[in-house]
Amino acid sequence: MHAWPASEVPALPGKGRDLQIHDTATQGTITLAPGPVARIYVCGITPYDATHIGHAATYNAFDLVQRVWLDTKRQVHYVQNVTDVDDPLLERALRDGHDWTELAERETALFREDMTALRMLPPQHYIGAVEAIPGIVPLVERLRDAGAAYELDGDVYFSVESDAHFGGVSNLDAEAMRLLSAERGGDPDRPGKKNPLDPMLWMAARPGEPSWDGGSLGRGRPGWHIECVAIALDHLGMGFDIQGGGSDLAFPHHEMGASHAQVLTGEFPMAKAYVHAGMVALHGEKMSKSKGNLVFVSALRRAGVDPAAIRLALLSHHYRADWEWTDDVLAEAVARLERWRAAVSRPDGLPADALVEEVREALSNDLDAPAALAAVDRWVDAQNASDGDDESAPGLVSRTVDALLGVAL
After folding, report:
1. Minimal CA–CA distance to 396: which of 337, 342, 348, 361?
2. How far apart are alpha carbons 286 and 298 in whole angstroms?
3. How far, in Å, CA of 20 to CA of 68, rounded?
4. What is the CATH number of the domain that holds 385?
């Protein structure tokens, strides 16, 4: 599966700072200092509907991570999946009378268009769950053969008790886990399971649903968590720098995935940092496909909203914060974009070397994008209030905003 085209990232003078980031597992801020190549895995979409602002906010956060690392003169090895076979996708296709593969392909194509418009840097490897199945089957077989998985009516489940570190990503108690498991695709009340929290690794073929040859597992399709584990281990290996996604993925998805990988490899941890973006609400409730309270990036673009303004609206909130999308949020972003473009359109201006360092400092501090925007606002206000004579300043500001914030002025 192909990703989307990459926008050029301008080189800035000097060198950026190492990233300090909040780690869900340790519940504190840690400093990441990768080697020459930084490794990141971000969980992708289930393509049964278009990209909404909540998606965009999540991918914007991890785009900033890439930009901070690139500014430190590192390479970035970024992997993202597409859950192109799953219950919600099949249910939506059945409801609307569409072929599920065509629905997945159409919505994935629209996602690529939205990511391109928002100037999100693409992953080096963009992998669909379906294409990963040949690599998933042997992992499930290994877990079963090692006694870390068991069969129940043809389905194969992972035993969470096989991982001594289980629970260490989300830090939730058993009851909270059970409630979230029921809400987020698990089946804690299924009779016969060894532990209510045990997640499915391989679902035996159901009538009318797609299935694949699972070797000794029989025909079926993979569970949600093992999909990402197979892709991450194949392309990044253990101990990669960041496992990322929305905060609703901390449990069960990232918790279960970590346990799968740790039992498979005997190594700990799967990722050095588990980083989670906050949720975006609309009319007082979290945006979700199930509720239908969505603002789509593609719809905003069709209405003539500049993608740079959409991105500035996302950047105006800290990535870990839960916040609400409103008309005012977008209007403020549109006005900010106009002010910034006017300021850098002048032939000369106030020196901007200090601004570069302010933006770097803000983003290295747990991706504090609002502080970075405030720094640019201060330069713009000063630029508009005085007559500078530095001919290089407007260009340097434009390159800084482009390279570190992903906004083209």
Report:
1. 348
2. 19
3. 10
4. 1.20.120.640
